[in-house]
Amino acid sequence: MAHILQTAFLPSTSALRRTPISGSKGKSQSLQVKAKIREIFMPALSSTMTEGKIVSWMKSEGDKLSKGESVVVVESDKADMDVESFHEGFLAAIMVEEGGVAPVGSAIALLAETEDEIAEAKAKSQSSSGISSAQVVEEKPKQKEESEPAVPAVAPTVSSIKTVAVGSAVHPASEGGKRIVASPYAKKLAKELKVDLGTVVGTGPMGRIVAKDVEAAAAAGVVAAALPASPAIAAPVTSGIELGTVVPFTTMQGAVSRNMVESLSVPTFRVGYTITTNALDALYKKIKSKGVTMTALLAKATALALAQHPVVNSCCRDGNSFTYNSSINIAVAVAIDGGLITPVLQDADKVDIYTLSRKWKELVDKARAKQLQPHEYNTGTFTLSNLGMFGVDRFDAILPPGTGAIMAVGASQPAVVASKDGRIGMKNQMQVNVTADHRVIYGADLASFLQTLAKIIEDPKDLTL
User: Are residues 195 and 270 in the same domain?
Assistant: First the structure.
C-alpha cells in the first residue's frame, strides 16, 4: 500500500464564514474560507502503466476517510494494489465503478473536505461525466444467459436463504478454474471472517471475488449454521470456460501483448548449449529438505556466470549506447491467472542459496496474489524462463524489452553419452537456449558465458558458499 491517491483541488462555491475580527483601524472584517473538493486520479502504479482497472472500492460514497487509509484496489498491468488516501475527508462521488477502466491521471472519484460539500461534489461528478478527463471504458464482456435448472427446495426455510454457489463462475483467464481470483481486500476479509474463497462466486469484473461477495458468504454461512441439517444437493459442475466466446485481454495480458510486440524491434539471435546436470541433481536432493528450490539453484548459477561476463548482463535502451548494469538481478518468468510476470531475485550473485530460496517462495506467493511491488518485478537485468518442470526439453524465449538476454531452460533428461576415453554411459542433461540483443551481445560472448555456466552447474560447489 505504498501508493498514494493523487488529488487536485476543485473550486467550491460554498463558503464558511468566521466570526468577525477587528482590523487595524477597528473596522470589522470577514474571512471566507472556501471548502475543498478534490479530484482523485487514477495513479500510475508502474512505469509501464497507461490505464488501470478498478477492482473494488473499499469505501462507499459518503464514508469518511482518514489520511493513509486504503480506499480502492486498482489492477495495474502487473499487480493488484491497495491505494491509500493522501487526505482526510469524505468519499463524495465514485466516478468509475468496479470493473471500470480509466487512463492514468483521469479522475475516478471526488473527495469532499466536509459533509456539507458531498452534494455539491456529486453534482460536479454528474456534470463532468461527459468530459474527456473522466472518460472511462467500461469492460462489459458479453455473457450468454443460460437458464438454470430448477432445483426443488428441501425446506421452505432453506429456499428463502440467499446461498453462495460453488464453482459456477470462474475468471476466463484462469487455468480452468484451478486458482481463485479475488481482490486483495477480499482475501484479507475472507481470512478475518473465516470464509473459504473456494465456495464463493465472484460478482466483480470477469468473475473476480470482491469484498461484498465475501460478506454475503459470511452472512449466508451464519444463517445456514443456525438451521437444521438437510440433505446436500450436488451443485452443477461447469468448466468455467464457454467455448466460442471472445474474451477481452486483462490489463496484464494487454501489457504482455504490448511488450511482446515491442520486442520485435530488437535484433536478436539464439545460442543453445547442452549441460550435464548429475552433480546439480545430487546437490538439489541433498539440500532440498532445507527449503532450497531448483529455481534458486539455477538463478544462483546464472548469476555467478554473469558476474564473469558482464556484457551478457548489459542492456541497450536507446539504440546508441548500452549500459553495464551494476547489479545482477535475475528475473524468473511465472505464469499466473490472466498473464505472465517476472519476479526478480535481486543481487542473486551475492545472496546465499538458502536466503535466495526463501525470497523466491515469498515472491511467487506475492505474484500469485497479485501483490508484487514494482521494484519486485521491473528491475531484472537477465531473465530465466524454465519449462523443464513441465517436461519440455527445449524451446526459445522472447527477449523482454529493456534487457540484454533471456535464457530458456529445458528439462533434465537421461541421455546416452560417450566420454572422452571412448566409454559410453548414461548422464542427465538439459538444453538451454539464450536469446540475446545482437546490438550489444555477440555470439562469442554467449558461447563463453554458456561454457562458464556449464562449469558451475557441472561442479556446483560454489552454489552453497
Answer: no
Handedness of CA 172, 173, 178, 181 (dihedral sign): negative
**The one catalytic residue among 3, 309, 375, 438:** 438
Active-site residue, 438 included: yes
How many residues in the chain? 465
Clarify whether residues 279 and 327 are in a common domain. yes
What's the CATH code of the domain at 161? 4.10.320.10
Give the model's confidence band at 62: pLDDT under 50 very low, under 70 low, under 90 confident, else very high: confident
168 and 38 in a common domain: no
Residue 53 and residue 42 in contact, taking contact as beta carbons nearer than 8 Å:
no
- The grid coordinates of residue 149 equal 435448472
Distance CA 221, CA 213 (A): 12
CATH code, 71 = 2.40.50.100
pLDDT tens for 161-218 read 333 333 333 444 344 444 567 776 777 778 888 888 878 887 765 567 877 788 888 8
- Whether the CB-CB separation of 354 and 319 falls below 8 Å is answered with no
